[in-house]
Amino acid sequence: MSDPREDNAAGLPKARNIHRRWPGLIWAVPLAALIVVGYLGLSAITERGIDVVVTFESAAGVTPGDTKVIVQGVQAGHVTHVRVAEDGLHVDVTLRLDPHESAALNTATQFWLIGAKPSFSDLSSLRAAVAGLSIGMAPQTGGTPTTHFIGLQEPPAITPGTKGTQYFLKTPTLGSVQPGASILYRGQEIGKVVATKLLALNSFQLQIFVYDPYDQFVRKGAEFWTGSPFALTLGDNGLQASLSPAANVLQGLIQFDLPDAARDALLSPKDTVFTLFASQAAAVQGDLGPPISYEVAFKGSAGDLADGAKVTLLGVKVGEVRDVKLVLPEDDVPSTLATIVIYPAELHVDRSEEKEADAWRKASDEVINRLLAQGFRARLAQSPPLIGSRTIAIGPDSEARGGTLGLQGKFPRIPSAVSASDTDQLLSQANDILGKVNQIPFASIGAQLDGLTAHLDQITGSPELKDSLTHLDGTLRQIDKTIGPLIARLNKSVDQVGGAATAATGVLGGAGANQDQSLADAIRQIDQMARSIRALSDYLGRHPEALIGGKTKDAR
Q1: Buried (b) or exposed (e) across 363-383, using 16+ Cβ within 10 A?
Q2: Cα separation of 51 and 95, whole Å?
Q3: Is the torsion defined by CA of 369, 375, 377, 382 positive or negative?
Q4: Which residue did the predictor score with more confidence, 24 or 378?
Q5: What is d(CA 553, CA 509) in angstroms, rounded to the nearest whole number?
Q6: DSSP string for residues in 352-374
Q7: Closest CA to 224 of 210, 236, 243, 245
Q8: Which of 209-223, 335-349, 386-400, 464-478 bottoms out in mean pLDDT, i.e. has the lowest?
């Protein structure tokens, strides 16, 4: 018999080992959670931003978490930390920037505080001063990669990346022009003043920036001058005033123009140096060359001659006074020593080539010596005379004979006039006139006039004169009553005589006209008598007083 266990084993399935590559579903949840955590961590790392440090001189008002970083008006980061720098004099501000700004982290990029120094010319600074400071950022390329920057306390005049060209202006006086001042061409803003710098005494340098495409107008011969924010003009429509915007009033402005003669000149390259003139008239006149110093000594009083007074040559301004002082020598009379400067261009010194300082001096001295040889001298003047301010006038002196520049002072000395100054001559003439006036016996003349007046009062107030005038008035009235009828009768007689003459003329013209020649003579006599009566009547009509006093000699 067979074993039953073997029969049962033969009918049962056999076990097999199955090997799977993936774990069971139980592990799906932890694995998904791990993937999500990894993704979130990686996103946090990639979107965390980039930390940079910007060093400012001060950072009052900068608050971590609140102060934003602004790029082109859009937030691109925020402040995460503020601490004092290691030198103890500055403040390090840590910024967390958007990762997209990573390409701009180089030395050409600039950061600045917005609102740290509020200005009426920058409305954003006023808004930031009220709402809270922010940090401006101007991304640039081309610099060396870095994460540490030096920040500016105020926005730059020209935002980095602005298209245009940089130039320089030189001027002896800065005036009211400040960084940020506008450069205008006939009212249109074409650029800005970036910075100002004092190079030496009486020498300033202005860095300017002219926007594209206006930099195409900056050519050799271009003119720049200091403008006025307030203009007052008198024209056909009366007195007119104009005021520039507040920014120009606070920061000043510069005017630009390109003369017609320079329209075809070559374009001026970057960093070209131009002269900044004080006015448009000075700009049209052009560069006068470096001021050349001279001295003038006056024996008498210089009055109120002050620094800045004009120096004229035949009435044309050629320089100005720079210093006036009193000299008290031991072996000579006191005098006034004036230091003046003369501009070579006003003496028509050749400006076609650039000259060194010694060349300008030599050329100016030659012109002055030529004038002195012709008898020109320096004298004090006033314009208008007596009431105007003192000036120094160089002109011909009738008593001078030749001459050259003196070398006894710090600068070459121009001889002063031998004759008295114009003012002294006017005062002398005035004194002579006053002396002659004082010789007039005004007291005696006044006494005689008083006596004459009293005598006239006595005559006009006498009773006899009043009676005579009353009697004369009555007589004239009586004549008026008499002369009227008399003249009427005379006219009537004349008319009758005229009629008789007419009738006689008719008779004479008739057939018997030749019968008696004596009749014509009689008619002529009658006509003459009528004319005489008519003349008498007319005369009495014009001069009725002739009935009393008779005919005067000059009566007509």
Answers
A1: bbeebbeebbeebbbbbbbbe
A2: 6
A3: negative
A4: 378
A5: 42
A6: SS---HHHHHHHHHHHHHHHHHT
A7: 210
A8: 464-478
Nearest-angstrom CA–CA distance, 484 and 477? 11
Structure tokens at 386: 């007596």
77 CB neighbour count, 10 Å cutoff: 22
Identify the residue whose tokens are 């009211």: 176
Q: Is residue 155 part of a domain?
A: no
Residue-averaged pLDDT of the chain: 78
Q: At what angle do helices 463-509 and 518-542 cross, to 10 degrees?
A: 150
In this predicted model, which residue has the larger pLDDT, 544 or 3? 544
Digit-coded pLDDT (tens) for 375-426: 999 988 886 666 678 888 998 988 888 888 888 778 999 998 875 555 555 5
Residue 225 lies in a domain: yes
**What token pair was written down for 457?**
């009062």
Domain boundary among 235, 257, 285: 285
Rounded to whole angstroms, the Cα distance separating 89 from 106 reads: 24
pLDDT tens digits, residue range 68-87?
999 988 889 999 999 999 88
Domain boundary among 238, 260, 285: 285
